[in-house]
Amino acid sequence: STTSTMDQYQYRAVFTNAVNSTTSNAVLLTVQYAPSITSQPSSITVNAPLVASFSASAVGDPAPTVQWQLSTDGGSTWNPIIGATSTTYTTPATTPLMNQYRYRAVFTNSQGSAISNAVVLTVQYAPSITSQPSSITVNAGSSASFSASATIGNPAPTVQWQLSTDGGSTWNPISGATSTTYTTPSTTSSMDQYQYRAVFTNVVNSATSNAAVLTVQYAPSI
Question: What is the pTM of this model?
């Protein structure tokens, strides 16, 4: 019973009697067999808009063709990628929409098919501001709250509020102000015209909100 290891074995017959021997021509055994995966693709993490390349390989006889497939729904459905018919597939420039797309290679010949493992594309992308903080006017002694938000970058960004006491020339982080809303301590006249902004940061980049101005109203003093 033939196996794939017997492919390209050669055979001949040797006829012998007391006088001499004669040897037939050698003949070739070709064993056709379904593809089997020899190298699996690996999951990849890239920063948008860089491309990602996936590779896989298989053996079979006849030599198998390859078709890469894409799933945009977590592996529930798969569709062929037009033109992706070599052992390496390179994506177009990545976008946030492509985060968690899945890819696999299907090798096919006349004897059957073999499907590689499905691998995941993780696309990391910078945050962007979706809600800007607003300037606020309060009476001295009251507190003021500023809020900002950003698209959920990948990885999820951290937030740090900053303060400028010189009209926006220099900025310094406010200790402990690491949520999307920052509430000042009880305001004083010296805080009038302070400026506040939020900086959202992940490993890809940062996004900085507009500066919001705090106006502190206070009673006159002689």
Answer: 0.79
189: helix, coil or strand? Answer: helix
- Determine whether 208 is exposed, middle or buried from the number of CB atoms within 10 Å of its CB (0-12, 13-18, 19+): middle
DSSP 191: G
Cβ-proximal residues to 169 (8 Å cutoff; 6+ apart), any chain: none
Q: How far apart are CA 177 and CA 182, in angstroms?
A: 6
Handedness of CA 165, 168, 170, 176 (dihedral sign): positive
Confidence (pLDDT) at 221: 87
8-58 per-position pLDDT tens digit: 999 999 999 999 999 999 999 999 999 999 999 999 999 999 999 999 999
What residues contact residue 82 under an 8 Å CB cut-off, 6+ apart? none
Question: In DSSP terms, which residues pair with 213 in a beta bridge?
Answer: 195
Tens digit of each residue's pLDDT (9 = 90 or more) over 78-137: 999 999 999 999 999 999 999 999 999 999 999 999 999 999 999 999 999 999 999 999
Nearest to 153 by CA among 190, 126, 185: 126
Amino acid letter at 180?
A: T
Backbone angles phi, psi at 182, to 5 degrees: -120, 130
